[in-house]
Design a protein that fits this description.
32% of the residues lie in helices and 35% in strands. By secondary structure, it is an alpha+beta fold. Strand 8 and strand 9 form a beta hairpin.
Length: 370
Amino acid sequence: MNIAKSKILQLTEKYATSSHINFIVRRIFFFFIIIGTMAMLFSFTSMPHKRLADEREDSVAQDEDSVVSVIAWFNKNDTMTYWINESTWDIRKGDTIKTAGINTKIMITVTDSTKKGYDMEYSFLDFKTDSVKDSWKQNLLNEALNKYKEAIKGTTIKFRTDIYGKIIKYDNLNEIKKQSKQLFMETIKEMSIIDSLAVAGIDLKTLLKDVDADRLVQGYIDELELMFKHHGTTYNIVSITNHSDATEDDYETDSYVSVSENNETYDYRIVVDVNNYIPKDDIKAIIEGVASAYLDEDKFNEVKEDMDENFDKQVSDDLLYNTYLSIDYFYDGWPKEIIKQEKRVIGKIGKLSQKYITWDYRCLLYTSPS
């Protein structure tokens, strides 16, 4: 298998997760995961930042002799700040309606540069919520954020990379783990939504039992790992599509991968776009599995009976599950702009979540602050 083909498969496999459920618990959107899942049991019900792949041309292989190497050319005391925007939307008959949003400001600093790699710090500086009117999701997010944003501000994660910028070790995750566990337990028990969960027959003890500190701490480093996920890897400059038929273990997928470089600035971009087509019978099985895990027996039986009677009437289409990731890098390996998106659509109704990361301040050894 040539380099281009093998790298394309590696990239596609990272995002074609049709056979698995994403178990990552977000540090703030955890509440949305719970409530969003519960909403699925009973109903199927500002614009996102534009996806660059929407403008792509016919997918053909480009110059396979050219490559892009994602390598960190950092120096001690280099500093970058970024804004991370996380938002959710409802899709209704072609309209996209924003339901919630939060903005997080973070800073990455190189504290040391050695022959073996880099010592670095990742710090949370600020949090801001979007103003979304008449949105219970935004109200819930505001409530959670107000309870512990001051505790998270200033939190710093220390980590190390190899000489290429690939993360190889965290130095203080045990401290972060203790903090995240304590904050989560203190916050969720005071949330107004808890009473609503009880009325719906959802056992809080069961929910909390499924949440462990490792998942919570992952919510602190999710964006960090996203920013450095390609470091240490070389890709051919290509633009290519691939189709995979359904098998016993995997769903039918269409994927698009593009790797490109700016000939003038030497900045570069990596894009992966994957569509998974999930049959409606599997949708029903997934929902029933979630319901059985979180509802008491009586409530679960009610939901199952209702689904057996009405599911086929309400759902006539398969589920389109799309994952999209585009990362722009400066020529020196610092991330420049990231768009990560997940979309689930049945017919003309669906949900969209998007993470948009863009640089804010750049102070490097060999450049003036900007």
